[in-house]
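Notes from the 1:1 (GR / supervisor)

We went over the backlog. Supervisor wanted to see one worked example end to end before approving the batch request, so GR pasted a single chain during the call. The sequence is below; no edits were made to it. Supervisor asked that the structure be written out right there so they could see what the output format looks like.
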Amino acid sequence: MTNTSFRPRRSCLYMPASNARALEKAKTLAADAIILDLEDAVAPDAKDSARDRAFEALEAGGYGSREMVVRLNAMDTPWFDTDIQRICASKADAVLVPKIRSAADILEISALMDKAGAAEDMQLWAMIEMPLAVLNITEIAETADSTRLTTFVMGFNDLAKEMRAQQDRALFMPAIAQTIMAGRAFGMNILDSVYNDFNDPEGLEQECRQGNAYGFDGKTLIHPGQIDIANREFAPDENAIAEAQAIIAAFKDPENAGKGVITVNGKMTELLHLQQAEQTMAMAEAIKALSE
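Structure output shown during the call:
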């Protein structure tokens, strides 16, 4: 499995692959990842041309350090086979597959990627947007140990549709908790679902803060205007960085050599807090590197 733990994914922006202007604009945006969308954002009669545009954009490059992902059409559609063949031959960093339902889906797609000659480090990202995916989430996550699977992407619009439910984030809390726990148990990354109202920055900010607190690595986005908020809310702030630095420095102090529990700024601090501090600093350094 590709180790992508400390690659920033604060903001992952969906861009319709059928829109040439959008693909060009993506080169100038501060998103950590660009998801070239062949699925929901593309009408059926534009699927083939969108695939061509995505392939051409990836070959031309110019996206800098942004992680480049392509969301394919689902496995049971007439476009999937050509999608995966073309994109596996491209310079994409990952393929994102919608409508995943089981571990068998992941095993099949990963094997198809190998057969199609995908680069060794090309990842498989899976949309968690079907009720069966939530019910099978542990078995799906477990395949990360033996396949290209690295990342779960929540999709609450489709999940609400499948559940015949209204959009209510409280309804998805069990799915959120199960997906994050299963993903982390097998070393995966997990991205939050989109926030539909791109004219509501306050609501987006609140949802990003909640997602960060719950353990998501970042948020998928539908509009460039959402990028700055996601980047800010999913990055360690100054207080978190200062606290992490203090914890690391305290454990390095010769007086604390061999200790499992020490006091830092008046708080009991264990080795697990040291590990969290090191993770915080690794992410802060990775984010800093993006701007250099």
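Supervisor's comment: Strands lie at 11-16, 33-37, 67-71, 94-97, 123-128, 149-154, 189-192, 218-221, 261-264, 267-270.
Batch request approved.
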